[in-house]
Design a protein that fits this description.
The protein is of the alpha+beta class. The chain has eight helices and seven strands, in the order αββαααααβαββββα. The strands form two sheets. Strands 3-7-6-5-4 form a five-stranded antiparallel sheet, with helices on both faces. It has a two-stranded antiparallel ribbon with strand order 1-2. α3 crosses α4 and α3 packs across α6. The longest helix has 21 residues.
């Protein structure tokens, strides 16, 4: 048996049940969450491998493509750009989600509106018509919401050291680091999530490619709140709670089980 097979065998032995379906199915594979296509050179951070069954891994396989694309579109840190990986992701969009191709023919007015809304920097000497700004179709939201929900299940497992019960409820949202209103929310969430985890990889300067903050309590192992960020682009917020706690929430309909979120893919 090769080293890779031995490593997988040890992992399956240490994590016998899938962490995405409430432990109902045995682990058959290792799922990288966030997926490797999000990162330059497909170099995912160490320690973000999770036990999954074949069905749970397949359930979000295609969601990974638009999610990875959005990570690449939004990151303003040039050090995180990988042209080869970006081209691979865009091929996945063209082949599977042609309706999600970027609109590269924005008018000057539309570009100006985007600059004002998201706080994009203006490059001196570059005319507005030549500014590298493209329109992102609204259809991305459902794919990002589903995949971010999977990230929340994975982070619950990583932080609480236990499988999230299938009946627990998830809420997620996302925006961009450049969004002024989003940055106000970011500061509030940072104050609420004191525990910081910065993604890293052995023998690699991982930079700011991925990190998150969380709030968890040993006295309440059913709760976790997370703020996460990919480079200088996509940022997300998420909460996992037990069903009994949703009654005190203003919009309880926004909290759903992971199974429900996956089923909505079929609608």
């Amino acid at each position: 048996m090769g080293q890779a097979k031995k490593k997988k065998a040890r992992f399956l032995e240490s994590h016998p049940n899938c962490c995405f379906c409430g432990g109902r199915a045995p682990t058959t594979t290792i799922d990288h969450v966030p997926n490797r296509a999000c990162f330059a050179g497909r170099a995912a951070p160490d320690g973000f491998e999770f036990p999954a069954c074949d069905q749970c891994q397949r359930a979000t396989r295609l969601d990974e493509i638009p999610f990875s694309a959005m990570v690449h579109f939004s990151d303003q840190d040039i050090n995180n750009f990988d042209e080869k990986n970006f081209d691979r992701v865009m091929t996945g969009i063209r082949n599977n989600f042609p309706e999600l191709l970027l609109n590269i023919n924005l008018t000057n007015r539309e570009k100006r509106q985007a600059i004002n809304k998201f706080g994009f920097p203006r490059v001196r000497g570059v005319a507005l018509r030549d500014a590298p700004i493209a329109g992102i179709p609204s259809g991305y939201n459902k794919y990002l919401t589903r995949y971010l929900s999977k990230i929340m299940v994975a982070l619950f497992y990583r932080e609480q050291k236990r499988i999230m019960p299938a009946a627990h409820l998830i809420w997620v949202t996302w925006n961009f680091v450049t969004n002024g209103a989003g940055n106000e929310a970011k500061e509030k969430w940072i104050s609420m999530t004191p525990e910081l985890t910065v993604g890293s990889r052995t023998n690699l300067d991982f930079g700011n490619r991925f990190g998150y903050r969380c709030n968890k309590k040993s006295t309440d192992p059913d709760l976790i709140a997370v703020y996460g960020q990919f480079g200088l682009g996509l940022q997300f917020y998420g909460i996992v709670i037990e069903p009994e706690s949703v009654s005190g929430i203003e919009k309880p309909e926004d909290f759903k089980t992971f199974a429900t979120i996956l089923d909505e893919k079929l609608l």
